[in-house]
Amino acid sequence: MNKSMEYIDTLRKREPSLFQGGQRSALTDGDIEKIEQALKYTFPVPYKEFLQSYVIPQGCVINPNYSRQYKLT
Predict the structure, then answer these.
(1) What pLDDT digit, counting tens, does each position of 15-25 carry?
(2) Distance CA 10, CA 39 (A)
(3) SS3 letters for 20-42?
(4) N or C: which end of the chain has fewer CB within 10 A?
């Protein structure tokens, strides 16, 4: 389990109403590569892990600085 999944699991436990269903992301490495090619930009590894963790509910905002707020070591 990567850091993104650990963080989202913590958030799901704390705010279960935000995660109706809690589906895992269906994005593959190939999907992300296609997006990166279209944007001509390479995503950082932690962001790729985040994209491949769970389907985030619409309207849910996650602070990208979560590593400072929650120790997940």
Answers:
(1) 877 766 667 78
(2) 31
(3) CCCCECCCCHHHHHHHHHHHCCC
(4) C
